[in-house]
């Protein structure tokens, strides 16, 4: 088309976050500080990595593209020794890299194409000690993950254990090159249930039942799930837990919000 400048070639498909004000907001929002472990997944050329290192955190920067990883290492080589010592650059695919066994944070502009897979690894596995994440993701994915009533048992499992909040829309101009789809800032924070083994066992029983039998009342799903996990919850206890969470016991269980699932299960797991 006359007068239209064609898009620059982008064979890698990568879109690097360049908005320094947004990067500073992500780092501040994470609460990361000296000595903490934080992952930058899809580190690119290191804009987020370097901001994290400036906080004094221990940073693991993961980048699949070996050329981008090499460029990041060259950038680090020009930094003071104190900064270089805080950062480890790992040339690997974020979909398969082993996650830390000790508490860690994630601050990253993640590859949009693997958002669901990454969230499954970060928020889906109860053995992963994730203590929070500030992520740049695709807009539609962020909207899906933060629906009050999750669309599936898997999404309910994530959102009942982690508070997921869509913070803001992110402009295409925040990246180079700009992506064709809208982006968002998605924040994750663990709920108390994320550190309760008994609560998580109960939640794992309840959610598949609720989404398999969406028309059954909440009290029946909760009573059945509690019985299957060995919780000796009376019908009165189940109804009290639902009422405490603001749920009509007769309402369909699949209509509970993620927050209500958290509150009901936490109440039942405590035996109250």
Polypeptide structure, described:
The N and C termini lie far apart (68 Å). The protein is built from 11 helices and 9 strands. Helix 8 crosses helix 11 (258-269). The longest helix has 16 residues, at 197-212. Helix 2 links the parallel strand 2 (37-41) and strand 3 (58-63). It has 2 domains: 16-190, Rossmann fold (3-Layer(aba) Sandwich); 197-269, Helicase, Ruva Protein, domain 3, CATH 1.10.8. 40% of the residues lie in helices and 19% in strands.
Which labels suit this protein?
elongated, alpha/beta, single chain, 272 residues, Helicase, Ruva Protein, domain 3, 11 helices, 2 domains
Mean pLDDT score: 91
Percentage of helical residues?
Answer: 25-40%
| Molecular shape | elongated
Return residue spans where pLDDT drops below 50 for at least 5 consecutive residues. 1-12
* Structural class label: alpha/beta
Strand content: 15-25%
What's the structural domain tally? Answer: 2
Number of E-type strands: 9
Q: What is the helix/strand order? A: EHEHEHHEEHEHHEEEHHHH
Strand order of the largest sheet: 4-3-2-5-6-9-7
Count of alpha and pi helical runs: 11
Tell me the Rg in angstroms: 21 Å
- Name the CATH homologous superfamily of the largest domain: Vaccinia Virus protein VP39
**The CATH top-level class label of the largest domain:** Alpha Beta
The major beta sheet can be summarized as: 7 strands, mixed
Under CATH, the topology of the largest domain is which? Answer: Rossmann fold
Straight-line distance between termini: 68 Å
Which CATH architecture of the largest domain?
Answer: 3-Layer(aba) Sandwich
């Amino acid at each position: 088309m006359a007068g239209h400048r064609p898009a620059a070639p982008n064979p890698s498909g990568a879109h690097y976050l360049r908005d320094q004000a947004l990067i500073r907001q992500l780092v501040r929002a994470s609460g990361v500080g000296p000595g903490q472990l934080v992952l930058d997944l899809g580190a690119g050329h290191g804009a987020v990595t370097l901001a994290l290192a400036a906080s004094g955190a221990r940073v693991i920067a993961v980048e699949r593209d070996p050329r981008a990883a090499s460029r990041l290492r060259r950038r680090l080589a020009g930094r003071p020794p104190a900064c270089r010592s805080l950062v480890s650059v790992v040339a690997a695919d974020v979909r398969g890299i082993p996650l830390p066994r000790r508490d860690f944070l994630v601050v990253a502009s993640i590859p949009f194409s693997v958002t669901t897979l990454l969230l499954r690894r970060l928020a889906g596995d109860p053995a992963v000690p994730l203590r929070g994440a500030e992520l740049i993701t695709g807009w539609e994915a962020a909207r899906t993950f933060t629906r009050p009533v999750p669309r599936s048992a898997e999404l309910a499992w994530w959102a009942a254990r982690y508070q997921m909040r869509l913070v803001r829309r992110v402009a295409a101009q925040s990246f180079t090159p700009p992506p064709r789809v809208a982006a968002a800032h998605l924040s994750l924070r663990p709920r108390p249930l994320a550190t309760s083994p008994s609560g998580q066992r109960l939640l794992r029983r309840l959610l598949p039942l609720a989404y398999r039998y969406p028309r059954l009342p909440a009290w029946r799903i909760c009573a059945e799930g509690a019985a299957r996990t060995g919780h000796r919850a009376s019908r009165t206890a189940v109804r009290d837990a639902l009422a405490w969470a603001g749920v009509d016991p007769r309402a369909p269980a699949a209509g509970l919000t993620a927050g209500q699932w958290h509150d009901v299960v936490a109440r039942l797991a405590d035996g109250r």
